[in-house]
Amino acid sequence: MPLWRKYRPETFDEFYGSKRLIEDCKAYITKGDMPHLLLEGPAGRGKTVLAEILRNEFGLGRMNYLEINASNDRSVKVIRGTVKNFAQTARVGSVPFKIMLIDEADGMGKIAQAAFKRTMEIYPHIRFILTCNDVSKVIKPIRDRCMVYKFKTMHYTHMERLITDVARKEDRTLSKELATAIRQVVGGSPRKAMNILETVLVRADITVAEIHQMVGTPDEESVFAMMFSMLKGSENAPKRMKAMMDTGTDPEKVIRMLFGLAMKGDKLDWSQRTVILRTIGNLPGATAEQRLASIVMTVATRRRKP
């Protein structure tokens, strides 16, 4: 059995998430009811896992729970038909509602979303849990009918603890360096961490560099070296970049790591942080967070006293 499945959380206490989210979910169980939920976050953060925990805690069997992927079944006809068929089957047990999980709801087009919004109103005995990667792609009428929760990146201390705990349960002792390397390459995804750990556990001689190469993620030391070379205007900067690319490093991940290092600010002065964050924030395809960082640094720099 894959590690991500073997150690999949089954209770709220095992779930690594925001304190408020878990407290709210426990309150829903105590109350015996819940609102529609809209869970936002990248893949592998635990959105589907949380939906399954809610199903179990409410005592809903498989007959009272249905999961569909809106990216695969995105037509109006499919969405309406699936919901209608599910709604018309009899409930099993004492819980007065069913739960329908619609994964990747932001994969539905605007017309399908508008039709689904009307469907939400027709069946009051169904509680919908929608997941998405980008909540801005979900129309406002749907957002307004849901409690929205954002799944943040797991804190690095929690991630490393999860990695070392699972390794110990598998009768392996993992060095701090290897646990840190796994944490660095998985982008806050527990599922991805378990997949990488599974490979690491069968390789007694695996190195930190090999872990980074497995997923094309640069190690911080290499990115730091390139960053300081370019900040100094050194001719070594493009050479260091090429060295990373030659090992199969994903350039997009280098940009994200540069952004993270500049946000953190270790070993960088104000002007160095500013030039990196403004440059990244002005790139085509920059994320909202990167654009915001560029705005903040631009305005703050202008307002700083000489």
How does the SSE layout of this entry go?
Blueprint: H1 3-6, H2 19-31, E1 36-40, H3 47-58, E2 65-69, H4 76-88, E3 98-103, H5 110-122, E4 126-132, H6 140-144, E5 146-150, H7 156-169, H8 176-185, H9 190-201, H10 208-214, H11 220-231, H12 236-246, H13 251-264, H14 270-281, H15 288-303
Parallel strand pairs: 1-4, 1-5, 2-3, 3-4
Model description:
With 306 residues, the protein is an alpha/beta fold. It has 3 domains: 17-150, Rossmann fold (3-Layer(aba) Sandwich), CATH 3.40.50; 154-214; 216-306, no CATH class. Helix content is 55%, strand content 9%. It contains 15 helices and 5 strands. The chain has a 5-stranded parallel β-sheet with strand order 2-3-4-1-5. Helix 5 (110-122) links the parallel strand 3 and strand 4. Helix 7 packs across helix 9 (190-201), helix 8 (176-185) runs parallel beside helix 10 and helix 13 (251-264) runs antiparallel to helix 14. The longest helix is centred in the C-terminal third of the chain and has 16 residues, at 288-303. The chain is globular and about 70 Å long. 30% of the residues are buried.
Distance between the termini: 61 Å
Largest beta sheet, briefly?
Answer: 5 strands, parallel
What is the architecture of the largest domain at the second tier of CATH? 3-Layer(aba) Sandwich
Radius of gyration: 23 Å
- Count the domains: 3
Question: What is the strand tally?
Answer: 5
Question: In which range does the helix fraction lie?
Answer: 40-55%
Mean pLDDT: 88
Shape estimate: globular
One letter per element, helices H and strands E, the order comes to HHEHEHEHEHEHHHHHHHHH
Strand content: 5-15%
What's the CATH first level of the largest domain? Alpha Beta
**DSSP helical segment count:** 15
Low-confidence segments, ≥5 residues, pLDDT <50?
none
Fold-level CATH name of the largest domain: Rossmann fold
CATH superfamily of the largest domain: P-loop containing nucleotide triphosphate hydrolases
Which structural class fits the helix and strand makeup? alpha/beta
Q: What topology, given as strand order, has the largest sheet?
A: 2-3-4-1-5
